[in-house]
Design goal:
The protein has 147 residues and is an alpha+beta fold. It has 1 helix and 7 strands, in the order βββββββα. It has one helix at 90-145; strands spanning 10-15, 26-31, 34-46, 49-55, 64-67, 71-80, 83-86.
Length: 147
């Protein structure tokens, strides 16, 4: 859950049932890989059962489905540098939104840089192709003219 929860930090959890969990809450749930804490990105009903879509804050994926019976608790606070940070506070919600926006911007800037490099490579190949074809044409013209 980095950067919201950093390695080595203690978390405070509260018991939560499926109806208490809301969008953007951080839930602790059990999978075959062990206990996982992720943020709720979506809530849906599949075949009459409530399913959450959860993903870590650093993840860019669409998240993973979490069945209601997998949910153990809701993360409500983090202890950082000797102080308790309430994750439901307005300040923390604003920080989370800013971090999310920054990560998306970083992702798009990376894609723009890749596109710029690809465009430059295409232009260089076209220039090489034009130079090679004009050289071939000159050689062909010399052969025809006998010079």
């Amino acid at each position: 859950m980095w950067p919201t929860i950093q390695p080595g930090e203690a978390i405070t959890v509260e018991p939560a049932n499926e109806t208490e969990v809301k969008l953007k809450d951080i839930v602790l749930y059990r999978t075959g890989r062990g206990l996982i804490g992720h943020r709720v990105l979506g809530i849906a009903n599949r075949n009459g059962e409530r399913v959450l879509l959860a993903c870590g804050d650093a993840g860019r994926g669409e998240g993973e489905p979490v069945a209601a019976e997998q949910i153990l608790d809701k993360v409500v606070a983090v202890e950082r540098d000797g102080r308790c940070i309430d994750l439901a506070s307005r300040e923390e919600k604003v920080k989370h939104s800013i971090r999310g926006l920054a990560l998306r911007c970083k992702h798009w800037i990376g894609l723009l840089q890749i596109a710029k490099r690809a465009k430059r490579a295409i232009r260089m190949r076209a220039a090489w192709r034009d130079a090679a074809s004009s050289t071939d044409e000159a050689v062909h013209a010399k052969q025809i003219l006998g010079k």
